[in-house]
Specification:
6 helices, globular
Length: 111
């Protein structure tokens, strides 16, 4: 339940709810995108006991996370600041996936 991915998703949902007005006015189909992401978060939390099912279905619906995070750029008057924040988010996700999740590296059999 307190997996780092769940915490990240809940943080994104919190930012979306806090800035709902400006984002829904400026981003076309924002309501539908957030609906899919919220469905992904709820599915992942509801089926967290069944990790494979929860992760696979949540990934199917959660692909819109890219659209949501990139829409955060319009929250800033200076687009460069928004772009830097989105790039830092991307670097943080890369770091999370490569080093923090403790997934063993690929190995070639026989070497």
């Amino acid at each position: 339940l307190f997996d780092i991915t769940n915490i990240k998703n809940l943080a994104i949902i919190s930012v979306v709810i806090f800035y709902w007005g400006p984002l829904s006015k400026r981003v076309q189909y924002f309501n539908i995108v957030v609906l899919f992401f919220a469905l992904s978060v709820v599915w992942r939390l509801a089926f967290s006991d069944f990790a494979i099912i929860a992760a696979r279905v949540a990934t199917f619906f959660g692909i819109v996370e890219v659209l949501i995070v990139s829409s955060f750029i319009i929250l800033f008057k200076n687009r460069i600041v928004g772009l830097i924040i989105v790039l830092l988010y991307g670097f943080a996700m890369l770091t999370l996936n490569m080093f923090i999740t403790k997934i063993p590296p690929y190995s070639i059999a026989g070497l």
